[in-house]
From TrEMBL, chain A:
Signal peptide: 1-18
Species for this entry: Pontivivens insulae
Cellular component GO terms held in the UniProt record: outer membrane-bounded periplasmic space
Lineage: Bacteria, Pseudomonadati, Pseudomonadota, Alphaproteobacteria, Rhodobacterales
Pfam families: SBP_bac_11
Protein name: ABC transporter substrate-binding protein
Automatic annotation (TrEMBL), chain B:
Record flagged with keyword Phosphoprotein: yes
Localization per record: Membrane
PANTHER family assigned: SENSOR HISTIDINE KINASE YKOH (PTHR45436), SENSOR PROTEIN QSEC (PTHR45436:SF1)
MF (Gene Ontology): phosphorelay sensor kinase activity
Gene: qseC
Assigned EC number: 2.7.13.3
Organism annotation: Pontivivens insulae
Domain HAMP span(s) in chain numbering: 184-235
Protein name, UniProt field: histidine kinase
Lineage of producing organism: Bacteria, Pseudomonadati, Pseudomonadota, Alphaproteobacteria, Rhodobacterales
Catalytic activity entry: ATP + protein L-histidine = ADP + protein N-phospho-L-histidine
Amino acid sequence: MRAALLALFTLISPVASAYEIEDRTLFAATGATADVTLKVLSTADTDVFAPILRSFQADNPSVAVDYITVSSAEIMVAVVEEQEAFDLVISSAMDLQIKLSNDGYAQPHRSSATQALPDWAAWREEVFGFTREPASIVLSRAAFDGLDLPRTRPDLIRILRENPDRFRGRIGTYDIRQSGLGYLFATQDSRNSETFWRLSETLGSLGTRLYCCSGAMIDDVEEGELAIAYNVLGSYATARLDGGDSSVIVLPQDYVTLMLRSALIPANAAHPDTAGALVDHLITDALGDDLPDRPFPALLPMGQDAATAPSPIRLGPGLLVFLDRLRRENFIRAWEASMLQ
Amino acid sequence: MNTATVPASGSIRRRLIVQLVAGAAVLAALLFFVVQDLSRRLAENAQDNVLIASATSISDAMRVEGQAITVDIPYSALSMLGSVSDDRVFYAVLIDGELLTGYENLEGPEGGGAATGRYAGDDVRVVAVERTLSVAGTLREARVIVAQTRSGQQAVRATIAQVAATLGVGFFVLSVVSGILAANAAVRPLRRLTGSIARRGPDDLRPVTAPAPQEMLPLVSALNGFMERLKASLSRSEDFIAEAAHRVRTPLATVRTQAEIALRRVERPENRAALREMIRAIDESSRSAGQLLDHAVVTFRSDTLEQTAIDLQTLAEETAERLAPLAEMRDIDLIVAEDSMPAPTRGDPILLTSALRNVLDNAIKYGPEAGRVTMRSYVEDQYAILSVEDEGKGFPDGEQALTGRFARGANVGGIVGSGLGLTIVEEVVSTHGGQLILRNHPEGGGACVLLCLPYLP
Ligand SMILES: Nc1ncnc2c1ncn2[C@@H]1O[C@H](COP(=O)(O)OP(=O)(O)O)[C@@H](O)[C@H]1O
Ligand SMILES: [Mg+2]
């Protein structure tokens, strides 16, 4: 039956799905029967997310998960334009998640787990943050041979200006026109400090290379292609650079942009209850201690007082501002002007 | 005494309670609605203020770039809306009615201000702010509309409504309790007055002197006035009786004297018998008049009872001496028993003498000729007791009401009497706080009357 369904899927999907799928994996039910197949649309790589799904399936053996990886921009295409029904949408682009909820594409979910979430980690009982991930700078040790490692953005600007030849063409950052997360990081940078535009000028003048995703940037640093990757997801970097000594992850000390990866249940979900169970699983996990096999950092800062720790980007309607058509156009124009000289 | 049943026309207490409770209910409902309405307006106002601030900051961010108007929506314009509640937010910027940026088909009140409407399937509060910009010499109408759903406002209102309801119900319950207490308190002096009057003895016509609430003073003084009048009219009638008795007795005494003089002169036995019969009738009449007088005196004097120390033994001896002539007429031996002892009490000597004289009078009247009447005084059970025994046939069986006014027993036969004697005795004894006991001698002997008075040494 399921095979037939999948076959049907493959047959019709090129027609039905105009959105671009990066990867699609079916996590078959671990129990004897599959009562429900959860259709999860996510920006997180399959192998990164797999441990979470497996532990969820350990508790819910009759649930199969159809895990579809897309870019955050494609989520908007799939949910808003195609109106395709998913059970859960997981994204690192907080602003897009807020927009989905604000525009009525999400449904509320209430449980003891969601009640336990701190105020700032949820919006409208529809968007639930379950990680806290910093935007970081990854540096190649070799490239910085003989130089002090920068601790702040002004540091970085100064070093780049003093050694333009060493770094020309060896800096990478997000192409904010392609990556929703990159756009989120850039816009938050621009809110936080004027340094952002100076840094962009400097990066632009050194022929910075633009990437779609954190993974590719980190790989290039590892391979020595890049000396600096700016605004990389810290969690990915930690995972990939595990053990290696050639690169170093810097959390800038002037300010850190903290992103919440979040989940929402679409209004047209076929299995909202099971999706709710998965949300609860994510939240319970996120509020627990950092487990070794958990691919994402916990929601509450480890070993730090939640009150004094830097606060993450607030889930709220403010995030809609940079999705405004005019504002986005103006921002991208300004960014292009400085980045693509 | 017969109590006329007065039909009750409602109850003051109930009326008071009903009025207070009804008033409290109206006030509580009013309180509820006022608080709720106020809260609705406050919540709406608060939301309007934020919305207007948001729209104004968007409007202020508009600028002309080249030939076109552009706007960078300020971050704070929308984030401030998220600071109050998790409500959905919509906005639109229109230039001359054309959407520049934002949500399509969002409509706000013409000419600015706030209104309630619907958007995207939700109730929204929507404000509009308008501004005129000059672009390359032409004036352009810019309109900023910001809307927010109202679930936060509704949640606040629901909370406040609950508080208001609790407040209203609490207020109501409190008012009901205090209303009942107040009604009871208002009626209590009435009850107290009723009680104090109901507890009084039948002849107690003293004015009410206990303090009463101002509102009841007219009633109390009317009551006192009424009792005053009643007392006056009672004493007038007692006076009248006394006066009448006195007027009857004086001429009777004259007639009796004349009859006695005539008796001495008349020789013929049948004439003497007629005269003796006449004297007896005169005596009887004057005794009845005397009893009427006594009765009036008792009623009058018992209002303000004198408290003289009196020994019943002495009283018995003195009275025996005084009534000796009357007893002799029937050859009766009137004695005070040898084993008598002093029996002290307190009271009015005139009343007590009058009581004892009436008892002795009966004993002489109903006892056999040439018999004996024995008085005995003693103390028993905190009572000073004076007993009077005769050797007659005793009280008739089964008659309880011999002490009633003008009540006479079945045993009177031809013996004349008014039926007032025992009435006087009973009244005197009870005004002194004592008890009158009528009984017959166990061994077929005559009547035994006990005057039991408080033992007060
Ligand atoms: N000593 C007595 N022996 C018998 N009967 C008596 C005696 N004293 C009173 N009574 C009864 O009690 C009644 C009421 O007495 P009293 O009030 O003195 O009225 P009265 O003597 O004028 O008849 C008498 O009519 C009589 O029947
Ligand atoms: Mg008598």
